[in-house]
């Protein structure tokens, strides 16, 4: 069951039969999944040391939650033993590689300078951890505080969060006029109000409580 926006995919996914919904038609299964993602995002947001987040970090937060939701089997999935990620990619996650640090941690990421013996360029950059990319090597995504861009790296050192970095993150968020709370909208920018949802919360199997 998919929204009408996915109509261009009709006939492009082999023998998969896409069941399209009508305009304004409720799709409880999809809405429950969205409800769960929003819940996980709010939970992770409450654990961070920041009161405001830059836009790129908010995007990374949603991606991080979806990544770990898909990393564990679901009771309503086609398999009760294989995770959605495993079914699609065929790859298992490695605790030592993909759980090296937490989302929102402060880390110094080592960068390769050219020329290698240059003393004019810093050998590390200040970043906020955005979570693993999911590749075999265990590469992580980071928010570069100097450029405001996302970078990827596999060599980094997690450090205690200094007050200066918290203020730095808040200053970036303020410059972007980001709100203190996570606000979910539809594709047209209309705010989605959870209070008006009539969809029951999704069941939480034993596997799910470990995902994020």
Q: What is the terminal-to-terminal distance? A: 26 Å
What's the overall average pLDDT, rounded? 84
Shape: globular
Question: Care to count the β-strands?
Answer: 5
Backbone structural class: alpha+beta
Sheet with most strands: strand arrangement? 4-3-2-1-5
Using only CA atoms, what is the Rg? 20 Å
* Succession of helices and strands: HHHHEEEEEH
Query: What amount of the residues lies in strands?
Result: 5-15%
- Work out the helix count: 5
The residue fraction in helices comes out at 25-40%
Low-pLDDT segments, ≥5 res:
205-212
Summarize the main sheet: 5 strands, antiparallel
Structure description:
This protein is α+β, with helices and mostly antiparallel strands. The protein contains 5 helices and 5 strands; from the N terminus they run ααααβββββα. Helix 1 crosses helix 2 (55-69). Mean pLDDT is 84; it is low at 205-212.
Summarize the structure in short.
The chain has 212 residues and is an alpha+beta fold. The protein has helices spanning 28-47, 55-69, 84-89, 95-98, 163-175, and strands at residues 106-110, 124-132, 140-144, 150-153, 156-159.
Question: What attributes characterize this protein structure?
Answer:
five-stranded antiparallel sheet; 212 residues; alpha+beta; disordered C terminus; 5 helices
């Amino acid at each position: 069951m998919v929204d009408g926006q996915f109509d261009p995919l009709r006939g492009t996914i082999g023998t998969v039969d896409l069941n399209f919904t009508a305009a304004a038609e409720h799709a409880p299964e999809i809405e429950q999944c969205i409800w769960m993602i929003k819940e996980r995002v709010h939970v992770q947001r409450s654990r961070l040391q920041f009161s405001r987040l830059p836009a790129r970090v908010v995007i990374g937060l949603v991606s991080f939650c979806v990544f770990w939701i898909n990393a564990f089997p679901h009771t309503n999935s086609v398999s009760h033993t294989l995770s959605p990620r495993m079914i699609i990619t065929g790859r298992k996650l490695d605790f030592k590689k993909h759980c090296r640090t937490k989302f929102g941690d402060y880390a110094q990421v080592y960068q390769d300078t050219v020329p290698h013996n240059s003393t004019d360029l810093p050998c590390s950059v200040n970043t906020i951890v955005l979570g693993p990319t999911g590749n075999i090597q265990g590469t992580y995504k980071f928010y570069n505080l100097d450029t405001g861009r996302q970078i990827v790296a596999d060599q980094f050192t997690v450090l205690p969060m200094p007050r200066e970095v918290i203020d730095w993150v808040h200053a970036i968020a303020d410059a972007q006029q980001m709100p203190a709370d996570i606000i979910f909208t539809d594709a047209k920018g209309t705010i989605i109000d959870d209070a008006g949802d009539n969809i029951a919360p999704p069941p939480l199997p034993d596997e799910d409580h470990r995902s994020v």
